[in-house]
Amino acid sequence: MALNSVIGNALSGLRASQLGLRTASNNVANVNTPGYARTELAITSRNVAGQGMGVDVRGVERITDEYLLAASVRANSDFSAATARYSALDRLQAQFGSTSDESSIFGRLNAAFDSLSAAAADSAETVARLSAASELQTFFDETQRLSVEMRTLRNEADTRIGSGIGRINEILKEMQDLNLQAQSLNASSADTSGAANRQVELLDELSSYIDVRTNRQPDGRVFVSTADGVALLDNSRLQLEYTPAGTGAYGLDYGEITAVVSASGARVDLTQNITSGELRGLIDLRDKDLPQLAAALAEYAAGAADALNAAHNDATAYPPPNTLTGRDTSLVGADVLQGSGAATLAIVNNDGTLVQQVAITVTGTGFTVDGNAANSITDLVNEINTALGGNGTASFTNGRLSIDAANANHGVALAQDSANPSSIGGRGFAHYFGLNDIVDSDRPAFFETGLTATSAHGLAGGGVMSFKVLGPNGGRTADIDVSVAGATIQDQLNALNAAGTGLGAYGSFGMDGNGEISFTPNAGFEQYEVVVTGDTSVRTGTGKSFTTIFGMSDGARMSRAEGFEVRPAIRSDSTLLSMAKLDVTGATVPGDLVVSAGDNRGGQELAAAGQAKRTFDDAGNMKGGMSTLIEYGARVAGKVGSVAAAAQRAETAAESVKEAADIKRSDVEGVSLDEELARMIQFQQSYNAAARLLQAAREMSDTLINIV
C-alpha cells in the first residue's frame, strides 16, 4: 500500500507540474496580448483519511480585480468620448484660424475693410474698388466653406455612429456565444480562462464605443449593461439599430439609436442611455458642438452682410444705376408693414443733378408717398408710380421691390432722412427691401419681418409644423405637430401656444415690434429646448414655410452662412460700388447737384461698418447683444478656440485617468516574464522530482518482485 501511495503522489505531482508548465507557457505567449489576464494553477494538497495523498488540481484561475477592470473600462469610455470630440473640433479650429491670421476668415474680413478704406480715400480709384469687392467675396466664400465643412463633420460623425452601432452588435453577439461556451465549460469543470480572456478583450473594445458595466456570473457568463442600467446582454441580447441620415444638413432631425430585445422583440430608445464612449462623443459633436458653432458663424456672416448692406443702401454710386432691384423679402403685395421715419427716393441725371425726389414715410400701418397713404406693398408701388409719373416705375414681383428710371441717362438713388431716418424691422426703407444691397443672399438673412401679429399669414391650408421637445438631459420629451390655423399670424401663434395641442405646456411664441418671432419657456422649463423638425406649410406666393420666414428652425438660421455673395454686377463693374451720398433736403429742386463724382462719404461709411455698433441675436450658446462686427468676430474666434481647447483638456485628463487605471490593472493582470520564468523552473524541477519518485517506486517494485 505504501508503494502505491508513492506512485499516486508521483503521478499527481507529474500532472500538476505539467499543467503548471502549460499555464506558465501560455502566459509567456500572451505577454503582449491586449486585455489578457495572466493565469495561475490552483492546487491543494489531497488528503484521504487525514493522510497526505498527493496534490489536487482545482483548475486554472485568471488573476484579475473586478474593481480595477471596471475602473479601466469607465476610463476607456471617457477617453474615447473625449477623443471623438477633440479630433473633429481641433480640425475645425485649424480651419477657422485666429484673428491675427491673415488667411483666416477674420483676417479676410479685415483685409476687405482695409480695401474699402483705400477705395474711400480715392473714390475714383478703380483698382481699389475692385479689390474691395473681391476681398469681400473671398470672405463670404470662406464663410460658406466653413459652414459646409461643419456639415461634413456632422455627416462624418453620423456615419461613424452607424458604423459603431454595427460593431457593437457584432461584439454583443460574440459575447453571447462566449457566454454559452463559458457556461458549458464551467458545467464540465473545464478551463474557462480562454473564454474569459476573450470576453474581457471584447469588453475593452465595447467600452470604447459606449459606457458599460459588467456583472460576472458564477457560471462564467458576463452580463453587460449601460452605466445607467439598461441591460445589453444577460439571458437575452439587445440588437441595436440606427440608420445614418447620409447628410449633415442643419435642422435635420436625426433618428434615435433604438434597441430590439432579441427574445421579445420589444423596442427601446437607447440614445440618452449612452453617456460616454465614442458614440456619446460623436452624438454631442453632431447635435451640440457643431450646430452651436454653425449658429455663431451664421450670425457673424449675416451680421457682416447686414452691416455692409446698411451702409451701401444709405449711399449711391456715381452715376446712380438706372435700376435698383431689391432682395427676396418673402412678402406678398397685400402685406402691410409697420415702422417709422422717412426716406427720400430720387431720380438723378448722369451728371448728378436732381430730376425728381419723392418723400416716403413709414407709418404704423404702412406708408405715405408724397403725403398720400399707401397701406399695403401694392399700394406703395402704385403711389410711387403715381408720384414718379413719366420719370420712373416701381414694381413688386416674387417678393422683390424694383425701381427703374424711365430715361436711360437717369439713375435711382435713395437716402435716409437725417433727422428722422426710416425704420422697418429695425432697418431703413432701402435697406429693408435690399434695393441697393452690396451683398445678396439666396435665403432669408434676417428675421425682423416688419409684419405685425394681425398681418395675414398667407399660409395654404393643410400644412403642418412639427416640433420635438428635448429635456434637460437632451432626451426627447415630446413630439408635437401643429396644423396651419386661422388667417392671421396671431391665429397661428395661438395654435402653436395651445396647451393641449400645441407647445403651451412648455412655453409660448410671441412677436416683437420688429416682426420677429421668438420662444419664451415657461417657468420650470428653462432647460428644455423646442426644435423644429419639419414644416410643410407654404406662404402662398413665396414658396417658403412659416418657420423659415421667421427663422424659427435651426436650418433657416444656421445655413445662412452659405447663401451670401457680393452682387455679381458690383464685382464686374466697380462703378456700381456706392461711394457717394444723395444730398437732398426740402429745399432741393430739380437741377440741383445731389450726387458728386468725388464724394467718398458712402465709401467711408462702408469702411466703418466693421466698427459700428449693432445688435446680434443669440447664436448657439453665444449670447447676443450690442457689439461691433470686429468685436463679434473676435468672440466667434474665441468661442471656436475655447471649445477646442476645452475638448483637448478633457481628452488629456481622460487619457491620464485611463493610463493610471490601465497601469493599476496591468500590475494585477499583466504577465511578468521574470515571475513566469521562475514558475517554469519551479514546475520543471517539481516535474523532475516527481519523475524521480516514480522511477524509485518502479525500482522498489522490481526489487520486491525479484525477492519473490
Write the layout of secondary structure elements.
Blueprint: H1 2-29, E1 39-48, E2 51-62, H2 66-96, H3 105-121, H4 126-187, H5 193-209, E3 212-216, E4 222-226, E5 231-233, E6 238-241, E7 258-261, E8 267-269, H6 277-313, E9 323-325, E10 339-340, E11 342-349, E12 354-363, E13 366-369, E14 372-374, H7 377-388, E15 392-397, E16 400-405, E17 410-416, E18 423-424, H8 429-433, E19 439-441, E20 464-470, E21 476-483, H9 489-497, E22 507-511, E23 517-521, E24 529-535, H10 546-549, H11 554-558, E25 564-566, H12 568-572, H13 601-607, E26 613-616, E27 625-628, H14 629-669, H15 673-707
Antiparallel strand pairs: 1-2, 3-4, 4-5, 6-7, 7-8, 9-16, 10-18, 11-12, 11-17, 12-13, 13-14, 15-16, 19-25, 20-21, 20-24, 22-23, 26-27
Features:
five-stranded antiparallel beta sheet; 15 helices; elongated; 27 strands; alpha+beta; 708 residues; three-stranded antiparallel beta sheet; 44% helix
Q: Count of DSSP helices?
A: 15
Adjacency order of strands in the biggest sheet: 14-13-12-11-17
Any idea what the shape is? elongated
**What structural category do the secondary elements indicate?**
alpha+beta
Q: How much helical structure, as a percent, in the residues? A: 40-55%
Number of strands: 27
Please state the CA-atom Rg, rounded to the nearest Å.
Answer: 38 Å
User: Spans of 5+ residues with little confidence (pLDDT < 50)?
Assistant: none
Tell me the major beta sheet.
5 strands, antiparallel
Average pLDDT: 91
User: How far do the termini sit from each other?
Assistant: 17 Å
Beta-strand percentage range: 15-25%
